[in-house]
């Protein structure tokens, strides 16, 4: 009889282990009908309070965000049915109660939470989509006694939980209350939940820091970035993408590339393989020369290899990254080695980054204009995208001049007051006196005979980018459009090809659904008749439909690198039938080349990628792709990428 019970018990245990080890498999249970009705009722009441508060022009926008973030938390957990445990229902009631209390306090002009210490939840409105996003800020126990003190800031990135939503984050922030022995403010960003701190998740870190700086006195020379597991992965890439922002960078575990972490043997298509250089941190190890990096991990943790690989890669460049290991520890953020790790980071925080002009010697690498700045130099343009691009050197002690060598750099700018002159790859050029001394940055462009310094008028022209070169925040791929302010635009006209228009509508619908769930915001959508000059000036336009249905597509089509008729789309010299093909692309908006236009695409990674691993959240379609679609019986579309490519640094298709 006992033997008959063994198999079911083993199955249950195995199934539970599978659920526990794979957050994607965690199942949610709906609240009881009574609780559901009560939660919805209280949410509507809070939303009404917020709507009334927004009518008062005297109320600061940042305080509205501090209230609205509670309504947003309840709205999202209800819409996506994310009640993973019974406690989530109780937490949602408490979130709504706190939101209502804050709304009442704000109406009375007494926002008490702004005077709280310990761990406090704040909110901000994202520039990307206007959504409200939360963060937690923990104050030292003696904060009120030192309120005029300029504080160090520690930014700690959370790991992947699989069941994290706004309610869980608000109810269980990483902060532990007043910290008697901690002489810093501690910021826990939400990161738009679990996305590897990529795309808008990465932007969330910067936006949360900016909001804290607006509210409190922060010592910008003493900002520490750290995190473990997924937070470690985020710390690796954000820390090394922006080496001049931090007094110290402290990743633990995580992953630092795609192929090794996923044990992926087959090379991805070239338009995906190249864009791995955006977030593969191992490629940016050289930037540890510009910021102190400290790492730690458990001796029994498989993810320790990420730290050891980064240490080895840095060592090959004569850069030391201290690594602290607890031999008996597994995958856990707190272990004996953590104390040594934290002590080292605190040393760097106490020292702080040097004041202006910062470090006088740099060794900087990037693969994209997206991450292009280190201390006093900005890489403006690359010769070839997604290739190693370097600037190394610094101020010569004898001459006082700046001596730099470059690789794969087509144009750069340097702060004028770092040195009298600059020697670029052997070309000695004026710096301090260049461009009549009228611009804070001096621009240099590489020509056939070496480097040239631009005069004042030429510099102003260069800034306008008349040759339509890939530049910072204007370099693609498609997914980059959603790290900046954007709006989706649907058509009101008659489609040239009804079937293709239905496909485009399905692409937008899927994007709305997945962005709402996985990046925690409603996609902003307007009609083509509603696009304003302000939208064109300030936002990336994400256009859906065809030239017949969408007037904005018709307006920009002539200047896009495709030909489009009712019967065919011609891309790279090849015709594709519009009855079962569509094009997805990103390109400088012909109506405003400082912003993108995107045709028929949202994010190119999808739910299966979010569920699988954060390392899969890389671009899937490059800059331009042709999609063959087939309508299924259930009304959805099956999509196949039949061709895709990356534009070169001139926004042109490669010759081959």
Overview of this protein structure:
Helix 2 (33-53) runs parallel beside helix 4 (86-107) and helix 3 packs antiparallel against helix 4 (86-107). With 656 residues, this protein is α/β, with parallel strands linked by helices. It folds into 3 domains: 118-351, Rossmann fold (3-Layer(aba) Sandwich); 373-463; 478-645, no CATH class. The relative contact order is 0.08. It is built from 16 helices and 28 strands. The chain is globular. Helix content is 30%, strand content 24%. This is Peptidase S9 prolyl oligopeptidase catalytic domain-containing protein.
Q: In the CATH classification, which architecture of the largest domain applies?
A: 3-Layer(aba) Sandwich
Oligomer: single chain
- Estimated structural class: alpha/beta
Query: What form results from the Cα inertia axes?
Result: globular
Strand fraction = 15-25%
The tally of structural domains comes to 3
What's the CATH H-level homologous superfamily of the largest domain?
Alpha/Beta hydrolase fold, catalytic domain
How far the N terminus sits from the C terminus, by CA atoms, comes to 71 Å
Mean of pLDDT: 94
Helix content: 25-40%
Tally of DSSP β-strands? 28
Q: Low-confidence stretches at least 5 residues in length (pLDDT < 50)?
A: 1-25
CATH topology of the largest domain: Rossmann fold
Supply Rg.
26 Å
Keywords: Signal
Protein name: Peptidase S9 prolyl oligopeptidase catalytic domain-containing protein
GO molecular function, one term: serine-type peptidase activity
InterPro entries: AB_hydrolase_fold, Peptidase_S9_cat, Plant_Biomass_Hydrol_Est
